[in-house]
Amino acid sequence: MDYIMFCDHCGMPKPIVEHIMREYFWIAHQVYCSNCEKPNQIPKYLQELALEMHKQHYGKNE
Q1: So what's the pLDDT on residue 12?
Q2: How far is Cα 51 from Cα 43, in angstroms, rounded to an integer?
Q3: Which residues contact 22 (CB under 8 A, 6 or more apart)?
Q4: Annotated domain spans of the chain
Q5: Is the pTM of this model over 0.70?
Q6: What is the mean pLDDT of each run of 10 residues along the chain (62 residues)?
Q7: Residue 25: CB partners within 8 Å, gap ≥ 6?
Q8: Kindly report the CA angle at 55 between 50 and 15, in degrees rounded to 5?
Q9: Could you point out which of 2, 5, 24, 56 has its C-alpha 20 to 30 Å from the C-alpha of 33?
Q10: Which residue, among 37, 39, 33, has the nearest Cα to 13 in the 3D structure?
Q11: What's the rounded Cα separation, in Å, for the pair 47 and 27?
């Protein structure tokens, strides 16, 4: 499933594909807007969801 974030600065939606969510969001702290190029904090609940996705995909021991 894909996700979407909205820029905190300009409001532009940013689609987040499942692969990016699973591989990077659990360790990243921010994502840059494709429109205004400003950083946006990744909410804690998305980081936790991404970590769970990562564990399910690769196993719990990583």
Answers
A1: 98
A2: 13
A3: 50, 53, 54, 57
A4: 3-58
A5: yes
A6: 93 95 95 97 95 92 58
A7: 16, 31, 42, 46, 47, 49, 50
A8: 25
A9: 56
A10: 33
A11: 7
